[in-house]
């Protein structure tokens, strides 16, 4: 009996399959230089025009944020089909390039390539404007995709990003759908939650035929965002199945509610701790000023084999900046360098901001000058930092350099430069910047910019101009502007003006004892001790109704917090003795400076 040999595919078929498998794995490559080596081999084999190979390359390059290479590869396809355009559109969306995604869609139309059901879901992810989403909706109707549930669900999701009007359009579309699934409900619930319509979202959730984990997480997120943490926890306990998103949402909810103990308990109970959960809990401890716990958890995270991603680094650095925790900030910075993490512009900006707010100007400048690329946030943060630390003239020089290098200052940049001029006493320069805002750069001054100008003029002794600007600006004076005027009155002992401003201030900020303290100083400087006593009595009554202000300091990796008249520290007697000595020293310096003027 003859045994037949197994039938084998021709060798070229087998080779093609192996090659396609390897090409399909290209998305796993995160090194652009390796991708370019693969591309060189493909060019040599003249396979770069093959649609299957080209689309895999486009996707891989886009994941590495190499969009120029991705677009070049797409342009070399001889006859790109809908799939090729879909991949390109998705690549642009992935890299936050909505206008380029729309341009690719327009090119697709001009070349007569008909979109398919996958084109619109990719395209709609790029938009958050009601007009463009509505135009895409009309396009969907024109090409006959109005009954495709994938396309309709994408439209609901897109409309839900467009504010209240968009949510209304999403609700109308949802009500007209002949067929819905759990994705339709999930998109609608998420949209209602974003719009703050939690009651409607809950009603829709309760009437769902079937719920998945996404449904539960959507409504859970709604209660957490609205601050209803008790209801959120009840829902959480009722969930048939929880994933990492469910756990992270609850940890974040308790952190926002200020209950770090409960947040930590839930974090410790998590079956699998993802990077989001680690970020939430570490940032929470940092915001609370609990340095040792934040550092310990950060070390635990790294010991568990988890390397912080860009989102984690930025979030933790932001918390360090807000709480003044330079120790943890430096720890994160060292971790970034040790892991050879790519210093993207967002990470560099976060580091500059952290060092600026923690008082480490040299480190901030070092990172700023070492940045390969900068954006308006980089320049604005550094200009603000220089002004904050009293280097007004250097802030002015940096502003000039920014404009010379072709960067247009925005409203945040102008806040920084105006504040810098105010603190450095550069009155004339500040006035010039204020008038150049709208004239040269089209930036309309907001109330914060007027506040900086009032402070600038008040510090410079130009009280009449300060009051004129405050009363003629196109906004009602707020507590900060009136406070700046009152501070100017204190500096120049203008009692009548100060009393007039206080009447406005009291209506705006009834609990601010600092304003009364300034008025008391004015009365004392003019010898009106009766009025001093009256102001002090009002301060005393107000202080009993509000918690004491607190200050904090980080020393040798220890974080200390102090409140007024606090004696809880074991060395409080020694601390107050040093404070008295510092106060006496400052009074002597002040007397010498006054005498020499």
Automatic annotation (TrEMBL):
Protein name: Pentatricopeptide repeat-containing protein At3g29230
Pfam families per the UniProt record, alphabetical: E_motif, PPR, PPR_2
Organism: Coffea arabica (Arabian coffee)
Source taxon at top rank: Eukaryota
InterPro entries reported for this sequence: E_motif, PPR_At4g14850-like_plant, PPR_rpt, TPR-like_helical_dom_sf
Keyword Repeat on entry: yes
Start and stop residues of the PPR repeats: 81-115, 181-215, 243-273, 274-308, 344-374, 375-409
Keywords: Repeat
């Amino acid at each position: 009996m003859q045994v037949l040999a197994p039938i084998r595919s021709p060798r070229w078929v087998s080779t093609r399959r192996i090659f396609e498998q390897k090409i399909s794995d290209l998305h796993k490559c995160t090194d652009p230089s390796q991708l370019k080596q693969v591309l060189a081999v493909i060019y040599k084999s003249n396979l770069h025009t093959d649609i299957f190979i080209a689309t895999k390359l486009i996707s891989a390059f886009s994941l590495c944020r190499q969009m120029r290479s991705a677009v070049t590869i797409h342009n070399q396809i001889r006859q790109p089909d809908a799939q090729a355009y879909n991949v390109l559109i998705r690549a642009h969306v992935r890299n936050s390039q909505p206008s380029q995604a729309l341009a690719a869609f327009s090119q697709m139309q001009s070349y007569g390539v008909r979109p398919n059901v996958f084109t619109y879901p990719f395209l709609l992810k790029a938009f958050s404007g009601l007009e463009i989403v509505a135009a895409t909706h009309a396009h969907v109707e024109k090409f006959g995709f109005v009954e495709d549930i994938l396309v309709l669900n994408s439209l609901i999701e897109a409309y839900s990003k467009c504010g209240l009007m968009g949510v209304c359009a999403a609700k109308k579309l949802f009500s007209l759908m002949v067929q819905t699934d759990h994705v339709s409900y999930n998109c609608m619930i998420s949209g209602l939650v974003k719009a703050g319509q939690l009651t409607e979202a809950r009603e829709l959730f309760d009437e769902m035929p079937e719920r998945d984990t996404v449904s539960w997480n959507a409504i859970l997120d709604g209660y957490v965002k609205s601050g209803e943490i008790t209801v959120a926890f009840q829902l959480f306990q009722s969930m048939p199945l929880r994933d990492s998103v469910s756990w992270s949402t609850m940890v974040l909810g308790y952190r926002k509610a200020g209950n770090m103990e409960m947040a930590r308990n839930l974090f410790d109970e998590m079956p699998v701790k993802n990077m989001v959960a680690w970020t939430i809990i570490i940032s929470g401890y940092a915001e609370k000023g609990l340095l040792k716990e934040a550092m310990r958890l950060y070390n635990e995270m790294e010991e568990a084999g988890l390397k912080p991603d860009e989102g984690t680094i930025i979030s933790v650095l932001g918390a360090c900046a807000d709480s003044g925790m330079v120790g943890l900030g430096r720890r994160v910075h060292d971790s970034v360098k040790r892991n050879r993490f790519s210093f993207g512009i967002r990470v560099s900006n976060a580091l500059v901001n952290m060092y600026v707010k923690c008082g480490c100007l040299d480190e901030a400048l070092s990172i700023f000058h070492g940045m390969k690329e900068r954006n308006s946030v980089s320049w604005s943060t550094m200009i603000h930092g220089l002004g904050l630390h009293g280097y007004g003239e250097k802030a002015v020089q940096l502003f000039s350099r920014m404009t010379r290098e072709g960067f247009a200052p925005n409203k945040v940049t102008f806040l920084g430069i105006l504040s810098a001029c105010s603190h450095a006493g550069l009155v004339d320069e500040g006035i010039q910047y204020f008038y150049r805002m709208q004239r040269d750069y089209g930036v309309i001054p907001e109330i914060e910019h007027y506040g900086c100008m009032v402070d600038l003029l008040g510090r410079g002794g130009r009280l009449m101009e300060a009051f004129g600007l405050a009363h003629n600006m196109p906004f009602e004076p707020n507590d900060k502007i009136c406070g700046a005027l009152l501070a100017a009155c204190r500096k120049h002992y203008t009692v009548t003006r100060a009393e007039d401003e206080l009447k406005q201030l009291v209506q705006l900020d009834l609990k601010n004892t600092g304003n009364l303290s300034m008025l008391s100083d004015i009365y004392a400087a003019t010898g009106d001790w009766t009025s001093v006593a009256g102001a002090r009595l009002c301060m005393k009554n107000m202080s009993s109704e509000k918690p004491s202000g607190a200050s904090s300091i980080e020393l040798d990796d220890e974080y200390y917090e102090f409140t007024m008249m606090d004696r809880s520290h074991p060395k409080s007697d020694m601390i107050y003795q040093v404070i008295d000595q510092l106060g006496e020293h400052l009074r002597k310096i002040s007397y010498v400076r006054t005498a020499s003027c």
